[in-house]
Amino acid sequence: MKETIIHETNGTVAKVIFNDPPTYNSFNLDTITQFANTIISLACDESIRGIIISGTGRSFCTGGDLKWASAHPHGPATAFHELSSRFHQSITEIRNMKKPVIAAINGIAAGGGFSLALACDFRIMAKSALFKQGFTSNGLSIDGGGTASLQRLVGMARAMEIIAFDEPLSPEKSLEYGLIHQIVSDKELIPESEKLITRICNISLHSFGWSKQLLNNSFSSTFETQLEAERLGLSTCAAHRDGVEGIRAFLEKRRPKFNQ
Fold first, then answer.
1. Calpha distance 197→100 (Å, rounded)
2. Is 1.10.12 the CATH classification of the domain at 205-251?
3. CB under 8 Å to 125, separation ≥6 — which residues?
4. Residues 233, 197 contacting (CB under 8 angstroms)
5. Which residues have C-beta within 8 Å of that of residue 128, sequence separation ≥ 6?
6. Phi/psi zone of residue 35: left (φ > 0), alpha (ψ -120 to 50 degrees), beta?
7. Does an H or E element contain 51, and which?
8. For residue 131, what are the β-bridge partners?
9. Where are the domains of the chain?
10. With bands split at pLDDT 50, 70 and 90, how would you rate the model's confidence at 1?
11. pLDDT tens digits, residue range 142-185?
12. pLDDT at residue 259, rounded to an integer
């Protein structure tokens, strides 16, 4: 099977790279299976504290391979049913893992690649990159959690505009809309992503993981349920070694040393 997903590890940080430039890093069932399996493995690997997702060539990821889907022996509907199953498995892992995940957007992020970037915790965009929703221009509806992520990031009115007209979104426009956190030069994309992930990994990852989970769950919880979840999270964090260290450091007026 062609290695269309590259997995590199440097200390406690892992990079997962889409590696099929001739297809603009689109994915068929083999590629998205490789990606999902890699993400699942990293989510379970206690030695990995953070993940960077990016692409090779001129694309970050352009989502499902329409040529592959069109050639599927049972038709494109079956193709997308199979494809989205594994794709959604990877999205769920990214959202549920108590580790930071950064999308280092090096080029075009379209279709499923757009949704994938929005599912990550942080997004850094190279100056030559762009976003394109992509689905509706091809007569399709959005998958990969895009309908949940998009309107939460930009609001319902702007999300409807992006869905209806599917205009390309430059890094500057993406930053204005709140879709990304930072714009950097192409050559600084990976170094800046590594700096950010290292910075995050120096805080309490236990606290980060609980806070990430609470934020994600807040969209489907009642206010009372959310309050109870927050109480559980707070008491659990206070009992954890990072919570003990954080409280002690505050009282001793020093910087805490987390993740020891």
1. 7
2. yes
3. 105, 171, 174, 175, 180, 182, 183, 184
4. no
5. 58, 106, 107, 186
6. alpha
7. strand 50-55
8. 109, 169
9. 5-201, 205-251
10. low
11. 999 999 999 999 999 999 999 999 999 999 999 999 999 999 99
12. 79
CA distance 91 to 113: 11
Q: Which two tokens stand for residue 83?
A: 């494809």
CA 211 to chain centre: 16
> 113: alpha, beta or left, given left = phi > 0 and alpha = psi -120 to 50?
alpha
Q: Model-level pTM?
A: 0.95
CB burial readout 7-44, b (16+ within 10 A) else e: beeeebbbbbbbbbeebbbbbbbebbbbbbebbeebbe
**pLDDT for 219 beyond 90:** no
CATH number of 5-201: 3.90.226.10
pLDDT of 101 higher than 90: yes
Q: Residues 91-112: what's their mean pLDDT? A: 97
In 106-257, beta strands by DSSP E: 108-110, 122-126, 130-132, 182-184
User: Of 61, 54, 52, which is closest to residue 9 (Cα–Cα)?
Assistant: 52
Number of H helices, E strands in the chain: 11, 11
